[in-house]
Amino acid sequence: MTTALDIQGLQKTYGNGFIALKGIDLRVEQGDFFALLGANGAGKSTTIGIASSLVNKTAGKVSIFGYDLDTQREQAKAQIGLVPQEFNFNIFEPIVEILVNQGGYYGIPRAEAFARAEVLLKQLGLWDKARDQARTLSGGMKRRLMIARSLIHQPRLLILDEPTAGVDIEIRRSMWEFLRKLNADGTTIILTTHYLEEAESLCRNIGIIDRGELIENTSMKQLLNRLDTESYVFDL
Ligand code: ATP
Questions:
Q1: Which of 7, 18, 236 to mutate to test the pocket of ligand 1 (most atoms within 8 A of CB)?
Q2: What is the 3-state secondary structure (H, E, C) of the chain?
Q3: How many beta carbons lie within 10 A of that of residue 105, not counting itself?
Q4: Fewer Cβ in 10 A, N or C end of the chain?
Q5: What is the largest CA-CA distance in the chain?
Q6: What is the torsional sign of CA 13, 14, 16, 20?
């Protein structure tokens, strides 16, 4: 079995001395739909920030589809699409241009990137807005734009940091449908969330981070069985 994300002994101490990750081991296999749960400040964003090369690690090893983050960073980065929590696009740019420009970062020719953008924007219900500036979109639409942009280079692993936070339930469900299909078509997905309901609905396997440590790493089914039979403290 191919491992999509392999993390060993991951540690992170921020510049102010705060120890955010205390040595995490985590494997996510190809094809998985994996949830990373944890309370505010547990270390979820730090973990995926390191996996997607936005944050430098202090110690440990990370590889993406076998590419080592220290020695094969560019190949590792090419495997990943990231949807960060914050909107980080130019709000004055037309939506389709945001995607085409992102394609440019990965060396995708303009015509090819445009064709891919059309497919993605149609799938995510944004094609009729393709020529509008991003600032005209609602919060839920901006979130979908971030998902479309993260997929323009057809990554094998998609990582989403709380993609449905603040999104109303109808849009949330349509995003879930999109992600389910993407996963069924072969993309490995890792999602951080505060919502157990979201993890339950989408994910096969789950990791729970608590104050920089991975305290659970199991199948969703096993965790839910346990929650039924034990008075497990689950304070997210
Ligand atoms: P949330 O659900 O609120 O996004 P999280 O689980 O994603 O939380 P992180 O964002 O990874 O948590 O943060 C883990 C800890 O590291 C928090 O206590 C946070 O305050 C701290 N932290 C994050 N970034 C920095 C930074 N640049 N400098 C210092 N401390 C930081």
A1: 18
A2: CCEEEEEEEEEEECCCCCEEEEEEEEEEECCCEEEEEECCCCCHHHHHHHHCCCCCCCEEEEEECCEECCCCHHHHHHCEEEECCCCCCCCCCEHHHHHHHHHHHCCCCHHHHHHHHHHHHHHCCCHHHCCCEHHHCCHHHHHHHHHHHHCCCCCCEEEEECCCCCCCHHHHHHHHHHHHHHHHCCCEEEEEECCHHHHHHHCCEEEEEECCEEEEEEEHHHHHHHHHHCCCCCCC
A3: 10
A4: N
A5: 56
A6: negative
Query: What residue owns the CA closest to ligand 1's atom 23?
Result: 46
Q: What's the pLDDT tens digit per position in 94-133?
A: 999 999 999 999 999 999 999 999 999 999 999 999 999 9
> 86 is written with which tokens?
């914050």
What is the rounded CA–CA span in Å between residue 146 and residue 108? 18
Which of 11, 13, 14, 191 is the best mutation target for the ligand 1 pocket, counting ligand atoms within 8 Å of the beta carbon and taking the most?
14
**CA-CA distances (angstroms) from residue 48 to 30, 160, 169, 224?**
16, 9, 25, 24
